[in-house]
Backbone:
């Protein structure tokens, strides 16, 4: 990717603006092209969500979805498709923009090797602010217990709009921020070193980018999976008693019988989803960046 800390230090001109714009464009394009796999594996994602919410096995979660029928299978698919494209645009573009700024202003203060991760942290923070409402709507729609009360996306928006930000659209903001900032920081910090190691095995640049994105996102998804489970449980319900993050975590941990195995239910499917989506996104993005460079 163009997020290389060895940017030349010079006054920013039209050429620099165009390069920054290309990072946003390439990030959005690569994520848009990966929406097809996202659409295909959405039933997998929904199965994981049911496991996170109801603490069920894969067989039980699939049985629930089968009984609900194919019409409801893709209920809630719109927010992740929109998020997927917009997230790529913002995440890759903003990370590259921040990296360029840090490379010229903090070169003597922060280690060059740490700059991509730091820029990723900043991009992840903005991502959390922008996309928490999308994730909130998605989780409400995917919870079958809301089908009667909130049958459509419009009804969900109207319901959340009437509530305070902290209990409405921005429910679960703190764990989302922790997950996104840590995830983005690790992704951009590890992607290039991982790609270099893989390329050293004699693989093509495209294959190296794909494997690098896959392995990096796989490790991150597994490490931060408990936060995703916490977010899903905090955001799936609308109304009722509003509990804080720690209270929700204690309830979740107790409901999983204080077992990591039960807490990580659905974790193997997260690996599958990460392999498909982030592997493709990383490969396409890196290829576009090298062509434009």
Residues:
């Amino acid at each position: 990717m163009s997020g290389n800390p060895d940017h030349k230090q010079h006054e920013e001109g039209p050429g620099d603006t165009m390069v920054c714009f290309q990072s946003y464009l390439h990030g959005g394009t690569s994520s848009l092209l990966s929406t097809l796999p996202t659409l295909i594996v959405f039933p997998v994602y929904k199965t994981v969500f049911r496991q996170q919410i109801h603490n069920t096995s894969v067989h039980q979660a699939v049985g629930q979805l089968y009984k609900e029928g194919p019409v409801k299978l893709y209920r809630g698919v719109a927010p992740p498709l929109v998020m997927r494209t917009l997230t790529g645009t913002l995440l890759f573009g903003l990370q590259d923009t921040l990296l360029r700024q840090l490379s010229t202003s903090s070169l003597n203060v922060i280690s060059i090797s740490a700059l991509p991760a730091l820029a990723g942290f900043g991009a992840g923070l903005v991502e959390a602010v922008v996309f928490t409402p999308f994730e909130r709507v998605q989780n409400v729609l995917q919870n079958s217990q809301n089908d009667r009360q909130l049958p459509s996306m419009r009804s969900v928006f109207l319901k959340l709009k009437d509530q305070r930000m902290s209990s409405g659209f921005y429910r679960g903001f703190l764990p989302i921020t922790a997950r996104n900032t840590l995830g983005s920081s690790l992704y951009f910090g590890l992607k290039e070193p991982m790609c270099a190691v893989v390329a050293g095995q004699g693989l093509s640049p495209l294959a190296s980018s794909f494997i690098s994105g896959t392995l990096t996102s796989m490790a991150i998804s597994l490490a931060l999976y408990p936060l995703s489970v916490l977010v899903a449980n905090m955001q799936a319900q609308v109304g009722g008693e509003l509990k804080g993050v720690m209270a929700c975590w204690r309830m979740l941990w107790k409901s999983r019988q204080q077992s990591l195995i039960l807490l990580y239910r659905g974790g193997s499917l997260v690996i599958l989803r990460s392999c498909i989506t982030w592997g493709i996104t990383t490969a396409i993005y890196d290829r576009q960046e090298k062509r434009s460079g």
Remarks:
- The chain has 13 helices and no strands.
- The chain has a mean pLDDT of 84.
- The domain at 14-292 is CATH 1.50.40.10 (Mitochondrial carrier fold).
- The radius of gyration is 20 Å.
